[in-house]
Amino acid sequence: MKIYRRSLILFLMLLLALSAGCATRQVADQKDAAPAAPQTGVQASTVPEPSPAKGAAAPAPQQAVPVSPDKAVRPAPPEILPPPAPAVNRNAVGCVLPLSGRFAEAGSRALDAVLLAADSLREGSKLPWKIVVADSGDTVEQTREAVRYLADEANVIAMVAIAGSAEAIEAAQEAQKRKTPLILITSREGVTQAGEYVFQHFLTPSQQVEALSSYAVNRLNVAIFSILYPQDDYGEEMIRLFQASLKEVGGKVDKAIPYDKTQTDFTEQIKKLAGNRFGATGKVFATATEARDKKTLEFEALFIPDSALRVKMIASELAFYDIKGMRLLGTSLWHTPDLIRKGADYLEGAIFADCFLVNGMLPETNDFVDIYYSAYTREPDSMEALAYDTMSIALKILDNEAVKTREEFIFSLLTVSGYRGATGSITFRGSRVAQKDAFILKIFKGKIEQVK
C-alpha cells in the first residue's frame, strides 16, 4: 500500500512538471512572435491604448488604407560626399614655361632665370620651398593642361607663367577656375579680367605709351605726332592707346597711316606722311633751295609700333627720300640685338620704352646682370629679368610663415609696393596689374642707353 501511494505521488508530480513546461513554451513562442523594437538608438516603450468609458460603444475596427507605391514613403538615399581636396603645398610654387616647340629656347632661358632667383634667395630662407615646372609647349591646349596639373596634382600654392597672347587668356581662365593664384608674364592687356586669382607682371602696352608720350611731350618738347602702324591686332591696339595717352599730356596726332604686316616697300605710306615734301613727279626735293621753298614736315615725331626688322626697313626708306627732322618713337618690340646691327645709322636718336637694359642705371639691374652672367656666361634679356623678379617676389612672400593658403598668398601679393628688382620698381597694391616705371631708351652713337 505504501508503495502504491509513493508511485501515485511520483506520477502526480511528473504530470505537474509536464504541464508547467508546456505553459512556459507557449509564452516563449508568443514572445518570439512579437515584432522587434525599432533600432533607433532610443529605448522603445509600449504605451497601452485607453479603454473605452462605461456605456460607450466599442470603437469600430479600423480598416487598412491602401497606399499607392508612388506615394509610399521611402527612406532617403545616403548622401554621397566628394572626397576631400588634397591639401595645398604651401612650400611649392608652380612655373609654366614653353620648354618645347617654337619657343623652347626662350622658355629654357627663362627657366634659368627662375632657378637663379631660387638659388639667390635659398640661403636666407627659413622654409624648404620648391619650384615645380610644367611645359606649356606652344599651344593653348598644352598651356591649359600645364595649369591644371600644377593646380590639382602638384597642389602648388601659386604659379608663375610666361605666355603669348592666346595662351595667356587660356591660362588665366584655367587658374581662375581652379582658384589658384597665377602671375602672368605677358603683354596681353586685360588678362586679369578673368578673376581675382589672376595677376600680371609686365610693362604693358598702355604703360609703354604713357611713358613714351609723357617723355616726348615734357622732355623733348614734341607736340605733333604721326603714326605708321601695321594692320594687325597689335598695331590697332597701339594706335588707340597712343592717341588716348597723347590727349592726357597735350599732344596731337597729325596722321595715322596703316600698312600691311607683310609689306616691305613703304613708298606710298611715306608719300602720305611727307605730303608737300614730294613734287608732282613723286620725287623728293633734294636740294636745299627746293626744300626751303616748301613747307617742312607737319609733325615732329613718328611713332612706329612694330618689330626691329620692320622699323629698320622704314627708317632706311625715310632716309632714301630725305625725310628728316623728326624723332622716331617705338615700343619694347624694338629691343632686340638686331636693332643696332647693320643699318642702325638711320635710327640715331630714336626713343623707345622697355622695362630692362643690361647696362641700365639701377644698381638692382646691374646686380642681376652680374650674377646671371656669372652663372650662365651670357647676358640676360628683358623676359629673363621679368621671370627673375616675378619668382623672387613669390618666394619672398612664402618666407612669411603666416601665409598658408592660396587666398593668403593673394592678400600678401596685393600688399607688394615699391619692390626694387632688376626691372625697376614693382607695385601690386590696389591692382592685380603690376605698376612699373618704364625705362626710356635711346639709340646714341650706335648703342642703346637709358635716359630715364
What is the CATH homologous superfamily assignment of the largest domain? Response regulator
Count of separate structural domains: 2
Terminal Cα span: 143 Å
Which stretches are poorly predicted, pLDDT < 50 over at least 5 residues?
22-65, 291-295
CATH topology of the largest domain: Rossmann fold
Strands side by side in the biggest sheet: 7-6-8-9-10-14-15
Kindly provide the name of the CATH class of the largest domain: Alpha Beta
Beta content comes to 15-25%
Structure report:
The chain is α/β, with parallel strands linked by helices and about 450 residues long. The protein has 2 domains: about 90-205 and about 360-435, Rossmann fold (3-Layer(aba) Sandwich), CATH 3.40.50; about 205-355, 3-Layer(aba) Sandwich (Rossmann fold), CATH 3.40.50.2300. About 40% of the residues lie in helices and about 15% in strands. It is built from 12 helices and 15 strands. The chain has a 7-stranded mixed β-sheet with strand order 7-6-8-9-10-14-15, sandwiched between helices. Helix 9 (about 310-320) links the parallel strand 8 and strand 9 (about 325-330). Helix 3 packs parallel to helix 4 (about 165-175). Residues about 20-65 and about 290-295 have low confidence and may be disordered.
